[in-house]
Amino acid sequence: MVERVSDARMDALFEKVKNWGRWGDDDERGTLNLLTPEHTARAARNVVGRTVNCGRVLPVAPSVENPVPAQHMMILAGDARHGTGVPGAEACIDYIGLAFHGLGVSHLDALCHVFHEGVMYNGRPASDVMSTGATRNSVMAMAGGVASRGVLLDIPRTRGVDWLEPGDGVTPDDLDAACEAQGVQVGPGDILLVSTGRDARREAEGPWDPGHGLAGLDGECVPWLAERDIAMLGCDGANDIMPPNTNRWPLPIHVCCLVAMGVHLLDNLDLSGLAAVCEEERRWEFLFTVSPLQIQGGTGSPVNPVAVV
Amino acid sequence: MVERVSDARMDALFEKVKNWGRWGDDDERGTLNLLTPEHTARAARNVVGRTVNCGRVLPVAPSVENPVPAQHMMILAGDARHGTGVPGAEACIDYIGLAFHGLGVSHLDALCHVFHEGVMYNGRPASDVMSTGATRNSVMAMAGGVASRGVLLDIPRTRGVDWLEPGDGVTPDDLDAACEAQGVQVGPGDILLVSTGRDARREAEGPWDPGHGLAGLDGECVPWLAERDIAMLGCDGANDIMPPNTNRWPLPIHVCCLVAMGVHLLDNLDLSGLAAVCEEERRWEFLFTVSPLQIQGGTGSPVNPVAVV
Amino acid sequence: MVERVSDARMDALFEKVKNWGRWGDDDERGTLNLLTPEHTARAARNVVGRTVNCGRVLPVAPSVENPVPAQHMMILAGDARHGTGVPGAEACIDYIGLAFHGLGVSHLDALCHVFHEGVMYNGRPASDVMSTGATRNSVMAMAGGVASRGVLLDIPRTRGVDWLEPGDGVTPDDLDAACEAQGVQVGPGDILLVSTGRDARREAEGPWDPGHGLAGLDGECVPWLAERDIAMLGCDGANDIMPPNTNRWPLPIHVCCLVAMGVHLLDNLDLSGLAAVCEEERRWEFLFTVSPLQIQGGTGSPVNPVAVV
Amino acid sequence: MVERVSDARMDALFEKVKNWGRWGDDDERGTLNLLTPEHTARAARNVVGRTVNCGRVLPVAPSVENPVPAQHMMILAGDARHGTGVPGAEACIDYIGLAFHGLGVSHLDALCHVFHEGVMYNGRPASDVMSTGATRNSVMAMAGGVASRGVLLDIPRTRGVDWLEPGDGVTPDDLDAACEAQGVQVGPGDILLVSTGRDARREAEGPWDPGHGLAGLDGECVPWLAERDIAMLGCDGANDIMPPNTNRWPLPIHVCCLVAMGVHLLDNLDLSGLAAVCEEERRWEFLFTVSPLQIQGGTGSPVNPVAVV
């Protein structure tokens, strides 16, 4: 059973970890400023070379997990393959469309995705996100793509369970215990991935509505993340506990990471394959690459990140 | 001026480089079978750690370069940020939609994208690509993402020009000359990137309709690629010369790579940043990662590949 | 409780009512050929002038009634009203997108929408409907719009109930009884609308999944419809009973109307307003107009038909 | 050559024709309040019964006329007709999507579509149109559909030309001359359609970019329209002259109709068929019906209006 975090406590944590102005008043990249070629090169140096993706298959049919699925439609299928406009050429063409911030889609949250009392990262007003897109803090801050040291903390493994139940919370003690059990440390510029075992549970017990329950990080983890100066955070759930264990304070991890710290988030990854490879290699650090579609004014992007273990 | 390649010559090349059955009759991965962890680890070992993306900004307005632009629309902007359904939460949400096989979109071609006389890679009929998606050879063969050694061959640099003119062709001699000038070799499992200087020309001379003219690889390069057993091929144009320098033989690079060899293609990359970094580092090899959206039955994916030089 | 209709019975009815060739082998309009200006003028002559629409509000949020809702997104809202491209002009612009053949969308079925054993109206093969659209029997046969005499048969009124329960069937006796009770006859060129009281039930008992149960016309009504030579048929449900009261014979009304007779269908109308006005005026005939979007190769169109009572 | 209308003159006209408050401060229907059953019944009484549509075919390919075409994609074509989810049923299903306020799409403008100095009909602020849709003055004010007396004024016929050239303006004198030549009067509750011969010119001279030139109504027509208390206005062009013959005063017809008077507009109709039928019948009045899709918060709707002459 997760403890409730009081609104006053979250207010205090939010103020404590705020990075506004740390990289200048014009900064839109937040903790991506912590990335260095040296750190990336170090991460690359020791890889075994096994490539593992961390994204989900795009959901294209409505289901309990994905009430608003992605669209995938053929423009030219095999029956119309001559219709390309290039004489003699035979090709098939299709279309995809999606509102990617769904709980069944692996995606990146840009710093303009979330507000706290009408304000986003670096103190910008919500009105900077217009009906035509974000004028500040858009996903274009990530346009160059990211490759850095990634660390997976496998919480079910440390706790000795198959998965965390929906609604359960990962605490700072869980993070410390996982670091110790896995012999790994988290530091500046790292991309931290936290596995709650969502996909193991799904495989065993079937799909469920993630809006009704997902394990995630307790708000008390916020200072732990801030002290380590991570560059990005990812999770197999929504990063936040669903439903929240706060009172009126919304989505503590989203708000403290995206708004206060300027930490981009990766939501709804599938970390089961990566956890298995890490276990086999007895090695929970790797080169992690994530690269959004370059959507001007976008609030994020669907992604399929790749770890090279 | 590019020479014309006869239809009979292309017919012969197609037969010569065919990999059908090489990895079994059920294979859908083609030359991705050549990827090995060892090769990837070797590529990672020597990187300087500089991260460079190779994708274009998604075109969202109609233009001469992109007659059918991507859609980007806000579902919730700042004025409606409370409409998330999560009480107290404030967020913005958007939608993207696109037919990604456009000449202005950086994208991956799956092996089902192109046919030759009604047949695709490993001898499968066009009717396997239905109005509901491809039942074989879809982009899901790439779902795991790819990280391997990448090599950039910078043709304008070797030729001593700023760019290749639209309609010009890269020959096997060009490829050899670039390898020699850059001190690099291309071999099994490599991802070959060929720069024609498209973006340098665009910057100097402005946008043009890529369908009316793009530099690309001459059909005579096909055996060169096959002998080296590359895993993937990418270009800042359409890989093929536009308009084609064949007679009735359509898109020789697309057809020989996707259909005959099973080589996935990356079209319309932006290689200008990568070329600049390679020049600075005097090093034209790197760790290259590309990861499609996991679209079941899809013919490809928009991508924003990342090179770690 | 509805009786089951045997597959053999449906096979016989299908053959009996077939209009293939009746208006020539090239015909794509089916019973729209029965429309005459005289009939329309007669219908118009006696109207009171009350205008009533028969379409539903487009569902834009996922719900039990509409698992795949329509998309409605603003391109320019008030915050971006100056972005029109016309200097000085201030405007808002939006986008709609939908798969209109849903059970929550009022729509017209073109004659290419349904097949019987791979064949559609006038004996054309399913392969005439390609991934790029229908090459025959598309909604363009209706492009000109229809205005004709409409007749509403209000089955709950005749039966003395508030509504028909989901899964219940309207029989030929019901149709005859309604004609007699309402003092109306149905004949050549008429557009027949059959109310099952779906919206009265919805208002009283709340939304339900229409795929799990909708009242509709029993397959035995097919000869009744054919004898009267109606031009179109509409219903507040799916015209067919859901789930079907046949065994392996699919959607008898859809198949016999669209495929055998060439009768265009209107699905999921909201007839509650029209029924109320008809009751007030003691008059169940009117001028009925329906006009699809002109979608080349389309299988139908969302519509909002208008009755002038 | 059209004369220029001064900004001061337009300012004065705007104030002069303003209907704000005329039907109460809560009104969202504007001159639709002028519709009466009696007027509709009178219009219906004398029809010959010929049905003519006034909408264009949806443009689904990019062209000079339609830079952002509509989307039309098959979800199930003939090759996948068994995929309906209803056992045994065989059907085809498609999708349409469009930003309907294009110059190639016949559409209805809701009263929230246009602003004048940040304000729309009945004095409401632009901020009432949010990224989630219009909270006031949306197309839902038209949800019930409209059937009323329609009058076509055929300006090329009166002038004795085949068409008006792009950029030309229809003046109050033109309107008077057409009324006299056709023996028709325009009055309260009427739907006025003004033909400029756009489609005759298109047929003779081919497509052109309508943004670069369309004949339309001169701003001086505004008092003429207001004095007659028309219910709606439609045109085969954009109603306004393109490019405008004002200085800084944007789109005088759009602004004075939608914002000041509360007159809904029909843009880009195809009136060539209607003009031909009217000529044949020597009768330029008819029953006119137009019915939008019921889009909550929508700024308009694609339409295919039907005239019963």
UniProtKB/TrEMBL annotation, chains A, B, C, D:
Q: Which InterPro entries match?
A: KFase/CYL, KFase_sf
Instruction: Quote the Pfam families the UniProt record gives.
Output: Cyclase
Tell me what this protein is called: Cyclase family protein
* Species of the source: Sporichthya brevicatena
The taxonomic lineage of its organism, from the top, reads: Bacteria, Bacillati, Actinomycetota, Actinomycetes, Sporichthyales
